[in-house]
Amino acid sequence: MSLSTDLQPDALRQAFALHPSGIAALCAIIDGEPQGIVASSFTVGVSMDPPLVMFAVQNTSRTWPIVRAAGRIGVSVLGEAHDGVCRQIASKSGDRFAGLRLDSTDEGALFLHEAALWLDCSVEQEIPAGDHQVVLLRVHGHATHDGVHAPLVFHGSAFRTLQAEAFA
Questions:
Q1: What are residue 84's phi and psi, to 5 degrees?
Q2: Nearest to residue 36, comparing CAs of 46, 24, 44?
Q3: What is the pLDDT of residues 43-94, one digit of tens each?
Q4: 35 contacts 74 by C-beta, under 8 angstroms
Q5: What's 80's DSSP letter?
Q6: Taking a C-beta distance cutoff of 8 angstroms, is the pair 46, 137 a contact?
């Protein structure tokens, strides 16, 4: 057996890209304006009691400190129709929410239409993890949209969709 000991960021990025993951937009209304980040490290089912989910965010993020300050954060697990939306929200310039269909709660959690899942969350805890922070979010509510929107998946450094297996 041969394992690579190349732990440089580019080599790790290529290796980690082989693990498929869902993508989530974490958004809130801050001072009357939509703010948000996109996370490909989003994980559900961290804990059922209390209900917790998590993601990792780079320490250099300029947007996370803004979103973190919100009382509530809307997590939209992105759907198949969100390929371009993911890039738009992750953009460093322009109106990152232009043309998007959005819903919000009275507490300021912001959600994208056509998402596979909505979770209304608040920050439970942040844990330093190297060049990232691991963020635990407490879930206060959810909407599954009756499974109408299949999730968008990030794999091999590309956005992909899930294909249902055909049975004969």
A1: -70, -30
A2: 24
A3: 898 999 999 999 999 999 999 999 999 999 999 999 888 878 878 888 877 7
A4: no
A5: G
A6: no
